[in-house]
Design a protein that fits this description.
Number of helices: 5
Structural class: alpha+beta
Strand order of the largest sheet: 9-1-2-6-7-8-5-12-15-14-13-11-10
Number of strands: 15
Strand content: 35-45%
Radius of gyration: 17 Å
Order of helices and strands: HHEEEEHEEEEEHEEHEEEE
Largest sheet: 13 strands, antiparallel
Shape: globular
Number of domains: 1
CATH class: Mainly Beta
CATH superfamily: Acyl-CoA thioesterase, double hotdog domain
């Protein structure tokens, strides 16, 4: 674990541009903080991937400590958002259940005015095997602070590299967006699905539910959006994410509700 901490994330990485800080606040609880600067906003709203990447970060942090010495795999991330946040954002994460085979974590997000989003994540608990990562807790701080890199991005969505087109979006799996195992970061993948659902027409993703099937490792990751129906300004879409460089292997499916501009 010490070797991983020394090399991940690299100097230029999405987690560094988010300046993510995670602090334990009790047994099975932690708080994360980020600041919504200009690089993380577009038209006054967080760009795709901002909220989901932080939620994925705090959820993974809590999950790791909850299942040790076993390991875990993310099954699902859901997000419900009713507000437009500004300034400093705090995320409060709680382990709701640690069962023999599953783990559920809840994350709420708030700015100075109050809560604006709520999320849940579910994980499969993977019993320890010979190739399971070993984490030595001796001297390992429970607080995680990822310092900004030497060359912060002027725009997070441009740095991630989402390419949006009618009917979908794609992203190359570069070191900037890889997780510690070399695959596409789960929060960035959720942001890709969000970008595909929002599309060139614009809007705000109010509800998002992503089911992770397998990791995207080759790239580009391609998200294809299929509209399901609409009620007023709300449009529901099914989004499928595939790893185009791995014979279009299906990596995730999502259902997303987007509020279109008036």
């Amino acid at each position: 674990m010490s070797d991983l901490a020394a090399t991940y994330p690299p100097p230029r990485h999405v987690l560094r541009d988010l300046s993510l800080s995670i602090e334990p606040t009790g047994e099975g609880r932690a708080e994360a903080r980020t600041v919504l600067g200009p690089a993380l906003l577009r038209d006054g709203e967080p760009v795709p991937g901002v909220l989901t990447t932080v939620i994925d970060g705090i959820g993974g942090h809590l999950a790791m400590f909850a299942v040790l010495p076993d390991w875990m795999a993310t099954n699902e991330l859901t997000l419900h958002r009713w507000g437009s946040p500004t300034g400093t954002i705090s995320y409060d994460g709680t382990v709701l259940r640690r069962g023999r085979t599953n783990l559920v974590i809840e994350v709420s997000a708030a700015d100075a005015r109050g809560p604006f989003a709520a999320s849940t994540m579910s994980f499969t608990v993977l019993p320890r095997r010979p190739d399971t990562p070993t984490v030595d807790l001796t001297g390992l701080p429970r607080t995680t602070r990822i310092e900004p890199g030497p060359d912060p991005a002027a725009s997070l969505v441009d740095a991630i590299g989402y390419v949006v087109a009618p009917g979908g979006a794609s992203v190359d799996i570069e070191p900037y967006v890889r997780n510690s195992f070399g695959a596409l970061n789960g929060g960035v993948l959720a942001g890709l699905a969000e970008a595909a659902a929002v599309g060139p027409e614009g809007g705000v993703a109010r509800q998002l539910s992503v089911h992770y099937l397998r990791q995207a490792t080759v790239g580009p990751a391609v998200a294809r959006a299929q509209p399901l129906g609409a009620v007023g300004p709300l449009v529901a879409s099914r989004v499928e994410v595939v790893d185009a460089g791995a014979d279009d292997r299906r990596c995730a499916v999502a259902t997303i509700l987007v509020e279109r501009p008036a």
